Amino acid sequence: MDFKRHLETAWRLTWRHIVTLILMTLVLSVISFLTFGLMTLVLMAGYCQSILMMIRENRPPRIGDLFSQMRLFLPLAILAILVIIAAALGFMMFYLPGIAVFCGVIFAMLYLLPLMTDQKLDWQEALKQSWNMATRGNIADHLVVVILFIGFLAIGGSVFLGTLVTQPFATVFVLSVYLERIGPGGRPEGLQSSTLESGNRHS
């Protein structure tokens, strides 16, 4: 995997649209805080789809894109509850198991949101395909992507308002990798047409 190319893409596109991306990230953060995290995943779905279109179609991101995937609110709310329960159980067993669960969730679900918005999959199939993409081929490459993603977010979280810059940068980076992983056909390897059609019917 050409990490240099993905990092350069993230740097170039983030700074080209920096004002809009910062505002989007700020709105996402504020609404997530005010709704106690209830809206976080569904807003992140719109956030990811907006950035994906920016990368693939050169379409400028828009703040209103955050609300473009509201149809996914219920399934993503259910998924969020399951993840929170798993993480809580991990932290109840001591700190390190909680961290392990958190890292494992990111490893398995890194491509879940773009698969749901871009491929119109339900969350169960998107989770399966995200796992397949993570474990297919050179797993070390995916581990590096996960480490870089967590690292960017950690750096942003350690600096006042740093997340407003590192969140979009990290997201552009991951979605650039996602586009490489799904290939020129625009569909993950092993994803059958019947599965895609089924996802479209449920969307």
Provide a brief overview of the structure.
The chain has 203 residues and is an all-alpha fold. The protein has helices at 3-16, 18-34, 40-57, 73-92, 95-109, 112-118, 123-135, 139-157, 163-182, 193-202. The longest helix has 20 residues, at 73-92.
Give an overview of the whole structure:
- With 203 residues, this protein is mostly helical.
- It has one domain (3-202).
- The protein is 75% helix and 0% strand.
- The chain contains ten helices and no strands.
- The chain has helices at residues 3-16, 18-34, 40-57, 73-92, 95-109, 112-118, 123-135, 139-157, 163-182, 193-202.
- Helix 2 (18-34) crosses helix 9.
- The radius of gyration is 16 Å and the shape is globular.
- The two termini are 32 Å apart.
- The relative contact order is 0.14.
Number of strands: 0
State mean pLDDT (0 to 100 scale).
Answer: 87
| Helical segment count | 10
Low-pLDDT ranges? 193-203
Taking the sheet with the most strands, its summary is: none
Order of helices and strands: HHHHHHHHHH
Provide the helix percentage.
Answer: over 70%
Structural class estimated from helices and strands = mainly alpha
End-to-end distance? 32 Å
Instruction: Estimate the global geometry from the Cα principal axes.
Output: globular
Radius of gyration: 16 Å
Number of domains: 1
